């Protein structure tokens, strides 16, 4: 089956598109599961990715009008893709910058009537952010959590939330004061479908909070030989003007936009980790040889040695970048209102 190619930008509908890079299904599969580590899973993943794309390659393109980056074909990973690419139970962080930034804002807006606020979260995981909402007085029975992972759904129910294995398009016409989408949008296709639905589900005067990866950080990684932001896991990358363009078409508007501040130490540690992972995807690199060690302790020791060597290789880049690391935090945070 051939997937439709987007000839226009899914955010602003402009047709001025420039290709950033092209990748084969085989290269994409190698990004998620090294063939040297699990040959069968890698091959199954490559076959499945090609089937999702309806072709052997995908390009990541950039809209020259609004700055949205998106994959062509514009198709999201499905359940089988995630099962193959990320086997095992997913781990969810308890603390994130966007969690605390949002809680601070919700407390400010709902100081008097917080207990009555109706909330919806898309991609809730086990509900770590939602627990923070309950700590400031929102009742779990007023919270709907959309999540596909069966084990996460079990935990959500245990915690008293209305967990549903549903897509936003399947939601009934109930409305919410607060809607949350953290690190979810970049995985989704049919952007007009999503934002038109959000516009219906959000009460007038309510707030939609989003967090997505920071575009400047993604660009830095891709220009400096660390991990590519690989489809079909992430299929869009967002500039502020891309949000403004799509929100406007759906009676929504951007109220606040903030970039997470980067810190030198966490930036360098993540860069080292991503550089090592990228190197491990190529045969005969030091990282690849370290990953090939069969014994876990031996592998850890080899990886620590390789990281030390790579640290000296990356140090000049870190020093050159030190002045702009503040703008290279991991996420951007948005508060959106309904017209
Ligand atoms: Zn655009």
List keywords for this structure.
single chain; 339 residues; alpha/beta; Rossmann fold; 7-stranded mixed β-sheet; 4-stranded antiparallel β-sheet; 12 helices; binds zinc ion
Quick overview of this protein structure:
The chain is 41% helix and 20% strand.
Describe this structure in words.
With 339 residues, the protein is an alpha/beta fold. Among the domains are: 97-225 and 239-263 and 331-338, Rossmann fold, CATH 3.40.50; 264-326, no CATH class. Helices cover 41% and strands 20% of the residues. It has twelve helices and eleven strands. The protein has helices at residues 25-32, 39-53, 79-85, 97-109, 128-135, 150-158, 191-201, 215-223, 240-248, 264-280, 286-292, 296-321, and strands at 17-24, 57-63, 69-72, 119-122, 143-146, 162-164, 176-182, 202-213, 236-237, 252-259, 331-338. The strands form two sheets. The protein has a seven-stranded mixed sheet, sandwiched between helices. A four-stranded antiparallel sheet has the order 1-2-3-9. Helix 11 packs antiparallel against helix 12 (296-321). It is globular and about 60 Å long. The mean pLDDT is 93. Bound molecules: zinc ion (ZN). Zinc ion binds next to helix 9.
């Amino acid at each position: 089956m051939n997937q439709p190619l987007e000839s226009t930008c899914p955010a602003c509908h402009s047709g001025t598109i420039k290709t950033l890079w092209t990748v084969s299904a085989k290269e994409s599969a190698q990004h998620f599961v090294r063939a040297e580590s699990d040959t069968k899973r890698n091959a199954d993943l490559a076959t499945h990715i090609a089937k999702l794309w309806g072709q052997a390659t995908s390009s990541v393109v950039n809209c020259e009008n609004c700055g949205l980056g998106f994959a062509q074909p514009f198709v999201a990973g499905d359940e089988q893709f995630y099962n193959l690419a990320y086997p095992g139970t997913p781990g969810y962080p308890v603390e994130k910058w966007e969690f605390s930034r949002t809680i601070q804002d919700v407390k400010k807006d709902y100081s008097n009537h917080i207990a009555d606020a109706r909330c919806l979260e898309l991609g809730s995981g086990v509900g770590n952010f939602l627990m923070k909402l309950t700590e400031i007085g929102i009742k779990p029975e007023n919270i709907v959590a959309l999540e596909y992972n069966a084990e996460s759904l079990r935990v959500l129910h245990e915690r008293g939330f209305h967990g549903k294995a549903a897509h936003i398009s399947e939601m009934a016409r109930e409305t919410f004061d607060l809607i949350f989408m953290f690190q979810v949008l970049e995985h989704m296709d049919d952007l007009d479908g999503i934002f038109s639905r959000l516009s219906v589900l959000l009460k007038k005067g309510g707030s939609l909070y989003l967090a997505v990866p920071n575009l400047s950080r993604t660009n830095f990684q891709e220009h400096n030989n660390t991990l590519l932001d690989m489809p079909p896991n992430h299929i869009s990358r967002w500039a502020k003007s891309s949000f403004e363009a799509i929100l406007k078409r759906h009676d929504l508007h951007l109220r606040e936009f903030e970039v997470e501040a980067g810190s030198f130490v966490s930036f360098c540690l993540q860069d080292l980790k991503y550089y090592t992972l990228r190197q491990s995807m190529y045969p005969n690199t030091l990282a690849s040889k370290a990953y090939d060690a069969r014994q876990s302790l031996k592998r850890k020791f080899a990886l620590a040695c390789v990281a030390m060597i790579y640290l000296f290789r990356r140090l000049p880049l870190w020093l050159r970048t030190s002045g702009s690391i503040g703008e290279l935090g991991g996420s951007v945070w948005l508060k959106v209102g309904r017209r």
